[in-house]
Design brief:
The chain is built from four helices and 14 strands. A hairpin with a 2-residue loop joins β13 and β14. It has 203 residues and is an alpha+beta fold. The strands form three sheets. Strands 1, 2, 4, 5, 7, 8 and 11 form a seven-stranded mixed sheet that branches. Strands 10-9-13-14 form a four-stranded antiparallel sheet, with no helix packed on it. It has a single domain, classed as Fumarylacetoacetate hydrolase, domain 2, CATH 3.90.850. The protein binds zinc ion.
Length: 203
């Protein structure tokens, strides 16, 4: 399986990192080796001194498809949750400056945390759905699904023109504003609406 991640999909987050808004979905991949094993803490790699959390809505693909039209996109998704797209921001800045791909900063082992608990996507009011992240009990990110620049149907239509979506693939849909660094012993807590979805320790 693969993980497709959307970058700069919330205007206030693109702004906080000094990026222009994309005109079409910007995406990159994480390999399956990036998935943080269930129950494990997140270990900060030794080659970075600035790993950021990015809380994101994550959707699971349940049907094989290519060239999926927008109006059929939701047939390819049945469950969603939240996850963290861990990013070595210092390394990413160096790569961006050199015009190089982001994999070292975004696709390393453990960089894809996905909560264990999945929710049913059918019937959800996406205009009302909120999600967020607390670090050590303080809110650091609070997002609204309706603030996505490119909604999930547009993302699926766009990405599936380039790569086949397969059963079990995951789509990270971008992070709202408020990204910041993690330190050893931090505890990250993720929410969808008022519901606590995960606790994750940092080492
Ligand atoms: Zn992200």
């Amino acid at each position: 399986m693969k993980i497709v991640c959307i970058g700069r999909n919330y205007a206030d987050h693109a702004k906080e990192l000094g990026n222009d808004l994309p005109k079409e979905p910007l995406f990159f991949n994480k390999p399956d080796s990036a998935i943080l094993a269930k129950g494990n803490p997140f270990f900060i790699p030794e080659w970075t001194s600035d790993v950021h959390y990015e809380i994101e809505l994550v959707f699971k693909v349940n049907r094989l498809g290519k060239y999926i039209q927008k109006e059929h996109a939701w047939k390819y998704i049945s469950e969603f949750t939240v996850g963290i797209d861990f990013t070595a921001r210092d390394v990413q800045e160096q790569l961006k400056t050199k015009g190089q791909p982001w994999e070292k900063a975004k696709s390393f082992d453990g960089s894809a945390f996905i909560a264990d608990q999945w929710l049913t996507a059918e019937g959800v009011d996406w205009d009302a759905l909120t999600f967020g992240l607390q670090k050590n009990g303080e809110w650091v990110q609070q997002g609204k699904a309706k603030d996505m620049i490119f909604k999930l149907d547009t993302i699926i239509e766009h990405v599936s023109q380039y790569m086949t979506l397969k059963i079990g693939d995951l789509i990270f849909t971008g992070t709202p504003e408020g990204v910041g660094p993690v330190s050893p012993n931090d505890v990250l807590t993720g929410y969808i609406n008022d519901q606590k979805i995960f606790d994750l320790k940092v080492k």
